[in-house]
Amino acid sequence: MYRKNIARRHKPAQPKRSLMKVFWLCLAAIVTLAAADVLRYAVWPDVDDLVTAQPQTTALIEQRRGEAEDVGKTFRVRRTWVPLKRISPHLIRAVTIAEDDKFWGHEGFDVDGMEDALRRNLEKGRLAAGGSTITQQLAKNLYLGTERSLSRKLKEAILAVRLEDALSKRRIIELYLNVVEWGDGIFGAEEAARAHFGVAAANLSPEQSARLAVVLPNPRKWSARNPPRHIRQKTAIILSRMERRGLI
């Protein structure tokens, strides 16, 4: 009896140890692959091309195309590139005020905005606010799409640093206003102005510009041409800020 107890007590646990070793190896491999997937954006894509070249398509356009194909629909892209000098200064001012009020002064990140977004997310218990700057939004639109994940936010941050380093602020806002989504299949300020108001982007009024700016968080749901009440209220706020700053 005594010998049996000793044998049972000293029975090796090799299978359990082997399973734990496999688990930790698999976990290490997953972490390594995830880190490599994020860190590759430190060198890819070549953002220096954007100094002069216009992007032919974007990750968001291709995402929307794929979403349409998945439900058997044809996706028609409406997008006309225009230089910044052919975009109303009212729109430039309204968009920067509504989306990234510190755009001209920061280096890709708005720390106060990120802290405010974090607070709101914690209060709601979900990702309700992103706190992204225009530079981060440009990175998302050009290269990443709208997936909500920590890895996408990390990639977005890396790309934002690279974009700020490679491009001037005027070039960043020019790119952004030419690729951002403003409705189903509508991309860029020129097509947005024509689709919603029947004018060229250069001729947008302050109120039209403010309407376009405030629908950017959800441009496929909210209409700039026939805005719901809360969009009209936000438009009034943006116009008031523009007027107080002597921008209109």
UniProtKB/TrEMBL annotation:
Origin: domain of life: Bacteria
The keyword Calcium appears for this protein: no
InterPro entries for this protein: Glyco_trans_51, Lysozyme-like_dom_sf, PBP_transglycosylase, Pep_trsgly
Protein location: Cell inner membrane
Pathway the protein contributes to: Cell wall biogenesis; peptidoglycan biosynthesis
Pfam families reported for this sequence: Transgly
Family: Belongs to the glycosyltransferase 51 family.
Gene Ontology terms: cellular component: peptidoglycan-based cell wall; plasma membrane
Gene Ontology molecular-function annotations: pentosyltransferase activity; peptidoglycan glycosyltransferase activity
NCBIfam families xref list: mono_pep_trsgly
Reactions listed under catalytic activity: [GlcNAc-(1->4)-Mur2Ac(oyl-L-Ala-gamma-D-Glu-L-Lys-D-Ala-D-Ala)](n)-di-trans,octa-cis-undecaprenyl diphosphate + beta-D-GlcNAc-(1->4)-Mur2Ac(oyl-L-Ala-gamma-D-Glu-L-Lys-D-Ala-D-Ala)-di-trans,octa-cis-undecaprenyl diphosphate = [GlcNAc-(1->4)-Mur2Ac(oyl-L-Ala-gamma-D-Glu-L-Lys-D-Ala-D-Ala)](n+1)-di-trans,octa-cis-undecaprenyl diphosphate + di-trans,octa-cis-undecaprenyl diphosphate + H(+)
Primary role: Peptidoglycan polymerase that catalyzes glycan chain elongation from lipid-linked precursors.
Lineage: Bacteria, Pseudomonadati, Thermodesulfobacteriota, Desulfovibrionia, Desulfovibrionales
Every Glycosyl transferase family domain range: 76-242
E.C. no: 2.4.99.28
GO BP annotations listed: cell wall organization; peptidoglycan biosynthetic process; regulation of cell shape
Membrane topology type: Single-pass membrane protein
Name the UniProt record assigns to this protein: Biosynthetic peptidoglycan transglycosylase
Keywords linked to the UniProt accession: Cell inner membrane, Cell membrane, Cell shape, Cell wall biogenesis/degradation, Glycosyltransferase, Membrane, Peptidoglycan synthesis, Transferase, Transmembrane, Transmembrane helix
